[in-house]
DNA sequence: GCGACAG
DNA sequence: ATCTTGTCGC
């Protein structure tokens, strides 16, 4: 795997890497039975001169949705947050956490977009292709595209997310009176399959359990590290 | 040139 | 993403 797929020298190289990686995305259900669902997320500390990012990964048994494994890792981000280049900022830390995982999941839900990205390589697709594992993008807001029609207010309501005449994902309402989620293919999963998995992992909260638990894990890792820091004196 | 812009 | 407790509404 080319080094610049994770740490490009500049944005031009990052852009080229995304195009190359996007060509490797498999938008079809190419995976075995899913007994273990994974959830990944990253937490940031604001005003941190060191640009540290805390990655959290959780593994849940399906269909029970009980957490059976957790892992976390801290890395210094090589880039600030730039819309469209989130993967380069968070994937390295996620890979470090992945290595710490005692048991690997059969499919992972990522906090962010997959194919619903300007170059078809949101963080979910980025992570999926680099690890070559089934992945799904579960974003809380849109990056590109617009809903093709008004979204129903009932949980389960969904509408295609279109951009430039193409359907890149699905806008899905998982909870009444809560903003919808933006689901898209990450890798080795079809859009229909991605939406189905998110629904199967829904528990009444806005976020599906894998991503919800990953968010908690990432925050826990950050707080633990922060509280371990020696107090400033003088 | 201007506005939009995952986490 | 993050700063932050209680509070209003379903």
From TrEMBL:
One of its GO terms (molecular function) is RNA endonuclease activity producing 5'-phosphomonoesters, hydrolytic mechanism. Its cofactor is Mg(2+). The gene is nfi. The keyword Chloroplast does not apply. Mg(2+) binds at residues 41, 111. The record marks 81 as: Interaction with target DNA. Keywords: Cytoplasm, DNA damage, DNA repair, Endonuclease, Hydrolase, Magnesium, Metal-binding, Nuclease. NCBIfam families: PRK11617.1. This is Endonuclease V. The keyword Transport does not apply. InterPro entries: Endonuclease-V. DNA repair enzyme involved in the repair of deaminated bases. Selectively cleaves double-stranded DNA at the second phosphodiester bond 3' to a deoxyinosine leaving behind the intact lesion on the nicked DNA. It catalyses: Endonucleolytic cleavage at apurinic or apyrimidinic sites to products with a 5'-phosphate. Belongs to the endonuclease V family. Its EC number is 3.1.21.7. It is found in: Cytoplasm. It comes from the Bacteria. GO terms for cellular component: cytoplasm. One of its GO terms (biological process) is DNA repair.
